[in-house]
Amino acid sequence: MWSRLGQGAGPCCCVAMAMLLSPVSREQRGSFSPPRIGWHRKWTNSINQDRKTSLLAWEKETGIELVQINGQRRYGGPPPGWVGDPPPADTEVYIGKLPQDLYEDVLIPLFQSVGKLYEFRLMMTFSGLNRGFAYAKYSNHRGARDAIAALNHYPVRQGCAIVVCWSTQKRELSVDGLAASVSQQELEATLQRATQGILSVTLHASPHQRQAKLAVLKYSSHQAAALAKKALMEGNLRLRGSEMRVEWLHPDLKQKLQLWEERPPASQVQENKRLAVPKPLALSPAVQNMLDHLNTLCGRQCLGMPLFLTKCIRVSPHGWLQFWFQVQIPGYPVPFSGFTWVRQDGQGQSRHEEAKAAVALHMLRVLGSQLA
């Protein structure tokens, strides 16, 4: 916490922390004069002054109005002259790897060159630099698709290629640290009373805490999920548990939970009777084509060709192979990684292709729900 504050805060914050953490006598406190707000504003304004001046000149020339609220600077939403309802969710793209001194006077004309913008949001720091990423929402799906096709890996400067891919509207939360005695019915009833738009609730054993549960909550919209997250983090809902953590559901955790549901458990011996290990999923000819289906989906969404890494890490005594995998999709912001199981074929073959097919099926489920 301290290192983060020390690096990211301005001089006023650092002086205030020094006052709190250092012993100061009454005489010293009486003679101390804190820095004025104007001095801090002067310090932040001095950062990247040339680029800020250029941005202000562009705003004046074009008449475009930028509004900064809660750490993001926004154009449009709706833009001037817009008539009708906002565009649907599949019209927004994520823009990453931005130079931190690059602003809307360059970015908005660039992204307007491929389609009509409904909204542009640039994430900002207190110092006036951007946080390295932004979101552009177009008037229709075609505009967003053309932006990905034309501007993904586009060099905004020499040696600075940006990433442009589909924006994922987060609608799922993870709540870790619930009491082991919490039931599905109890949790659903509490959430339906206190939050709006809850679609589904699933309970799992917590992967991080013993004798605790983890809940995955799915909401009807990003706004509904954000309001529920705020209520849960502020402790407004009476849920039994200690040290509860409320976060957006991370793709890696989502994949891990899905894989756990279908992972073959270790064989057990009870009353001298060996229990059979269930198959996670039969690799039928349709599943063998999962790689082709995944490649087709990624191509249709302009995400690029998936790159697979697989490694066999364990062989069970009952004929199962456990594989670790990692899949990188060029146009997707995070890699996929986890574990899966496949059945040995009895002929000594590596079974890597079968592992890839099983992984591709899981990825189609994840990507399908996020891109729908």
From TrEMBL:
Pfam families (alphabetical): DND1_DSRM, RRM_1
SMART domains, per database record: RRM (SM00360)
Keywords (A to Z) from UniProt: RNA-binding
GO molecular function: RNA binding
Designated gene of the protein: DND1
SUPFAM superfamilies: RNA-binding domain, RBD
Residue span(s) of domain RRM: 91-169
Protein name: Dead end protein homolog 1 isoform X2
Positions in coiled-coil regions: none
Residues that span the membrane, as ranges: none
Alphabetized PANTHER family for the sequence: HETEROGENEOUS NUCLEAR RIBONUCLEOPROTEIN
Species, as recorded: Lepidothrix coronata (blue-crowned manakin)
Keyword check for Transmembrane: no
Superkingdom of this protein's organism: Eukaryota
Keyword RNA-binding: yes
